[in-house]
Amino acid sequence: MTILNRPQLWSFAGKSAVIGLGVMFLFVVFVSGCATTEAIIDIGVSSGLITESQGESISKSTKAVARSFEDFTPEQEYYVGRSVGAVILNKYKPYNSKKANDYINILGQILSKASDMPETFGGYHFLIQDSDEVNALAAPGGLIFVTRGMLRCCQHEDAVAAVLAHEIGHVQAKHGLQAIKKSRITSALTTIGIEGAKTFGEEELAELTETFESSISDITATLVNNGYSRNFERDADKAAVTILKRVGYDPNGLEDMLKIMSKKLKPGGLDFAKTHPSPASRIADIQKIIGKTTRVIKPKTRQARFIAALGNV
């Protein structure tokens, strides 16, 4: 994948007055609303900076961007998620164990059917990544990634179910799309490009493609490097508790996992320690939901299949 760096991106934006002004106007519309944007367009036209037709194009583009942030279709969410997932897979390679991946996919499919979003456009897919980092991530549309390091924080199936249910919670709440909405400038550039694509030649279209790829890179950076807010994490944990109860798993498994995680996380690391609230704060929030902590009962059959699938992860 070819990625534009920021200087290249802004150089591309500067090649056209329409696109350059469009970025400014799009930024204003998010801050001040459409009425302010229309006023600035009028000033641009009257001052000769842009033509009347260019002003109409920019106005149309800003409205299209505003709509796109609110009206992602399931199909659009799926393709955005696939693009984000491809970048994530470039960072963390898949773990080559059919038995382990089949196990978390069967478990994940069962849990997803008990969620408030049992179906997505492309369906839910679960994959173990070959990394010692403690991490898990849900891309838009239902692509869920869990590292080997994360699974080592799980001592029983209820804990694994809790990890997957938490990520399903992010999907059903569309937290990934809300993170995407923060990448306003690159998304705006892409949409403006799409608006004008009918009149662009091969070179311009190639540049637009690179701009879209850069947008996906920015989106992935938001998810991987910055993480979700504590409110989002609390919402995902709350959803996980509901899903686990619906299926018959003990939500205390989530607390068990977090306690082990707190011992494994390294300060300043690039994993959950950087992108998530502390395990202690999450445990405190979870206890408010499920009440007093109780020991998770581990049926022999359930524990045996857990060990058979993930014992060597």
What would you note in describing this structure?
With 313 residues, the protein is mostly helical. It folds into 2 domains: 6-73 and 183-226; 74-177 and 227-310, no CATH class. It contains 16 helices and 3 strands. It has helices at residues 6-14, 17-32, 34-46, 52-70, 74-91, 98-113, 148-151, 157-172, 175-180, 184-196, 202-226, 230-247, 252-264, 272-275, 279-290, 300-310, and strands at residues 125-129, 136-139, 143-147. A 3-stranded mixed beta sheet has the order 1-3-2. A hairpin with a 3-residue loop joins strand 2 (136-139) and strand 3 (143-147). Helix 8 (157-172) crosses helix 12 and helix 13 (252-264) runs antiparallel to helix 15.
What is the fold's blueprint, element by element?
Elements: H1 6-14, H2 17-32, H3 34-46, H4 52-70, H5 74-91, H6 98-113, E1 125-129, E2 136-139, E3 143-147, H7 148-151, H8 157-172, H9 175-180, H10 184-196, H11 202-226, H12 230-247, H13 252-264, H14 272-275, H15 279-290, H16 300-310
Parallel strand pairs: 1-3
Antiparallel strand pairs: 2-3
Helix pairs in contact: 2-3, 2-4, 2-10, 3-4, 4-10, 5-11, 6-8, 8-12, 8-13, 10-11, 12-15, 13-15
